[in-house]
Here is the input.
Amino acid sequence: LKIGVLVSGGGTNLQAIIDRINDGTITDTEIVSVVSNKENAYALERIKKYNIKGKCIKPRDYTTRQEFNFALRDHFISLGVDLILLAGYLVVLSEDFVRAFPNRIMNIHPSLIPAFCGNGYYGLKVHQGVIDRGIKVTGATVHFVDEGTDTGPIILQKAVEVEDNDTPEILQRRVMEEAEWTIYPEAVRLYAEDRIKIQGNRVIIT
Ligand code: GRF
Here is the structure.
């Protein structure tokens, strides 16, 4: 399985996936390209010691948004990528891009979708929303990407408790440690083993 990864920042989810490939949990899988929209994304630093190829492709280098999306699409097509992972990617992809890889793009979102997702809910805003509403359980979701924002078929979810003294930063860290870094590699493993079937909006794991 050839994987392409899109990142904007720290890349801790990318790291978790690299670790599961390197320890043999995920088999027959190679990360062939990591693309960032930011030159200084720490994710691009992380991959150097694994000899994974990194690249920066950013909207500003193209005259139109469409050209940017086509460049990104053609980059992954030229590498023969089977699966694209959004791992803390903060750019909204066009419908053209998404349609080029139907049910072959995954994303991780730091809440239990459909709560605290969609436009406006990203990064710390998700966790701030959870705290403001006073809910007791949050979590993370891995889903396929469709033309909407956080609307595609849900692959895996894991719950995480909210504690009384949580700040958005503390909660963000707990959701990563207890949910994201487990379920994202797990979803990739299931995909690599061809165990994910989609029936309408539902994902069946075999
Ligand atoms: C994670 O919280 C993820 O759920 C969200 O962006 C963050 C990325 O963190 N989509 P990292 O770059 O993987 O460390």
The chain has a mean pLDDT of 97. The first strand starts at residue 2 and ends at 7. Strands lie at 2-7, 30-36, 54-56, 83-86, 105-109, 137-144, 154-161, 196-199, 202-205.
